[in-house]
Design brief:
By secondary structure, this protein is an alpha+beta fold. It has 3 domains: about 150 residues, Glutaredoxin; about 325 residues, Glycosyltransferase, CATH 1.50.10; about 80 residues. The protein is built from 25 helices and 21 strands. The strands form 7 sheets. The protein has a 5-stranded mixed β-sheet, with helices on both faces. The protein has a 4-stranded mixed β-sheet with strand order 19-18-20-21, sandwiched between helices. Strand 6 and strand 7 form a beta hairpin. Helix 15 packs antiparallel against helix 16. The radius of gyration is 25 Å and the shape is globular.
């Protein structure tokens, strides 16, 4: 029976014709496993994953393997992009069985969903000491039939450990960023740039953290300058490396070699959105423009929103290849079909892109990028928001049944706030505040934020929902992004409850993030913001090129130029930072505020520049 052909997820539909009797994530699969008393295979991947494609061709399309799998297991196929909570739960469980985490992720679980074994790609035949996938299935089946007591013990202990709450450190949300800086500098690859050896990832959240520490008072000089320089070296090395497509401008997901060569060729929206922000912050207009070109020419959907990724594989001259398309120049590519794009519009990842485009527009003086951000925001809000409810994913107008997560609320709220500042349109800030307030209202005792729809219901019914969204790596967690959005709201409204919520949310992450900065860059950047005194620059009135240049170059989270009408609209909507901000004498007037205490307004750009050098 084909249960995947009507799925919204392109990844699930790509497995619809497998001889494996795949079921989508949900209650039905676990009910069937309980009825038959067999274990569950939860196989997780995504549409543009190279090794997911390979395993699908080698094993999941093999009639013999499929027959064995169907007889002894219930098989569930999950798109990790559609169900990030499911992926996070089983990825955390898999770490108990293998250090080599990635996708495809194949987790074997009891009928109540508790993992007792996991692995990633398995070859169709034994290879270099690795068992074949058929051998893995046989071993798991044997353990299920002959060692049930041990299976129950392992799965129960692991499930209990996974859902244990993360407790705040004794120092609350305070972090010693001197120690963080030492770890980052020690982990740098001084020969090729970046962090560590092969495989080498861009780890964009860590680069954004390093850029922030380079200008933040939480780290004294000269150490701050050293950390900022580390980020700039890495960004320069990446821009000149094989990780970047010189024709279409986007960055690939990672390189298999330490010198950034031989990349895995999938190009993800989340990587490119964050790297756009980073390159804009360092003033690399060419690399930033290349990323925007990739976003608009490759990932952008007819609605104005962005698809999630472009595939690593394609066909060149009729032959399947990974990377062969990217070895061609622009003329050569014109004669070949491009790699497929997963057009699934993910709410959270679009939030990353919206915020990055808005920030880059301001920092690099590209107002047309603000319009791209507005079009994406309008498209996401039109398709993924009904009333006050938010959806996780849509595809060509179809709505995924997957619930929106804290990641979606946090990333979209932050992106909309940054867009409101870039565009001067208060509507986006009002929606962002609603998203944050709804997550505050949904939070339980001891929580700051929770997704209003609650955790994934199938996980929750089995007691497997993680206590908090704290997983990071290639992009920030929902907790980190929601905390940043709340801090921005605190700066814009002056309402301390937003800052207090951010502190409550981040406190459980402080100690673990400080000990593992490469893994939790987003949390650490949010924690650094929390230790700073917010400085905001507002210019009100008719356009003034000199003051506009100051706003463009200001390394502040809140730096905005608005008309008097826009300032009144923000103030009337409850964003107190804009209250009583007027254009004196009909001229553009600048207000520089630290912690809601503002200096005297001025018309002089140089006076503002001098004041910025002494701001906290």
């Amino acid at each position: 029976m084909n249960r995947l052909d009507s799925a919204v997820s392109p990844y699930l539909r790509s497995h619809a014709d497998n001889p494996v009797d795949w079921r989508p994530w949900g209650e039905d699969a676990f009910d069937e496993a309980e009825r038959r008393d067999v274990p569950v295979l939860v196989s997780i991947g995504y549409a543009t994953c190279h090794w997911c494609h390979v395993m699908a061709r080698e094993s999941f399309s093999d009639p013999g393997i499929a027959a064995y799998l169907n007889e002894h297991f219930v098989a569930i196929k999950v798109d990790r992009e559609e169900h990030p909570d499911v992926d996070s739960t089983y990825m955390a469980a898999a770490s108990a069985f293998t250090p080599n985490l990635g996708w495809p992720l194949n987790v074997f679980a009891t009928p109540d969903g508790r993992a007792f074994y996991a692995g990633t790609y398995s070859p169709p035949r034994p290879m270099a000491g690795h068992p074949s996938f058929r051998q893995v299935l046989e071993a798991v089946d044997e353990a299920w039939r002959t060692k049930r007591e041990e299976v129950d013990r392992v799965s129960g202990a692991l499930a209990e450990a996974l859902v244990a709450p993360v407790m705040p450190s004794e120092s609350g949300a305070s972090v010693d960023f001197g120690e963080v800086a030492e770890q980052l500098l020690a982990y740098e690859d001084h020969e090729h740039g970046g962090f560590g050896g092969a495989p080498k990832f861009p780890v964009a959240p860590v680069l954004l953290l390093a850029l922030r520490l380079g200008r933040s008072p939480v780290l004294p000089q000269p150490r701050a300058a050293e950390v900022g320089a580390l980020a700039r070296r890495t960004l320069a090395a990446m821009a000149a490396s094989g990780l970047r497509d010189p024709v279409e401008g986007g960055f690939f997901r990672y390189a298999t070699k330490r010198d950034w060569t031989e990349p895995h060729y999938e190009r993800m929206l989340y990587d490119n959105a964050q790297l756009l922000r980073a390159y804009a912050e360092v003033g690399d207009a060419d690399t930033a423009a290349g990323i925007v070109s990739f976003l608009t020419e490759v990932l952008r959907r007819p609605s104005g929103a962005f698809g999630s990724a472009q595939d690593s594989e394609s066909f060149v001259n009729g032959e399947r290849t990974e990377g062969g398309y990217y070895a061609l120049d622009a003329a050569g590519r014109a004669d070949q079909p491009p790699p497929a794009v997963d057009g699934k519009v993910l709410t959270g990842w679009n939030g990353l892109a919206i915020g990055a485009l808005a920030t880059a527009a301001r920092r690099l003086g590209r107002p047309e990028w603000t319009r791209l951000a507005e079009e994406a925001a309008d498209a996401v809000l039109a398709s993924a928001r009904t009333g006050r409810s938010l959806l996780r994913a849509t595809l060509d107008g179809r709505q995924s049944p997957a619930p929106a997560t804290l990641e979606d609320y946090g990333m979209l709220a932050r992106g909309l706030l940054e867009l409101a500042l870039a565009s001067g349109e208060v509507h986006y800030a009002k929606v962002a505040r609603e998203l944050v307030d709804d997550c505050r209202s949904a939070a339980g005792p001891g929580q700051a934020f929770a997704a209003p729809g609650g955790p994934d219901s199938t996980l929750a019914r089995r007691g497997l929902a993680l206590a908090a969204d704290t997983g990071e790596g290639a992009y920030p967690s929902g907790t980190s992004e929601m905390a940043v959005a709340a801090m921005l709201l605190n700066e814009l409204t002056g309402e301390d409850e937003y800052r207090e919520a951010a502190e409550l949310a981040l406190a459980p992450l402080a100690a673990i993030a400080a000990s593992r900065p490469i893994s939790l860059g987003g949390a650490l950047e949010a924690l650094a913001r929390l230790q700073e005194i917010g400085t905001a620059l507002i210019v009100v009135g008719p356009e003034d090129p000199d003051l506009a240049a100051v706003v463009q170059s200001a390394e502040l989270d809140v730096a905005v130029s608005v008309t008097e009408e826009q300032a009144r609209a923000f103030a009337d909507a409850g964003f107190g930072l804009f209250a009583d901000r007027a254009a004196h004498d009909g001229r553009a007037t600048a207000y520089l505020c630290e912690g809601f205490v503002c200096r005297l307004p001025t018309h002089e750009a140089e006076q503002v520049r001098q004041a910025l050098t002494t701001a906290a």
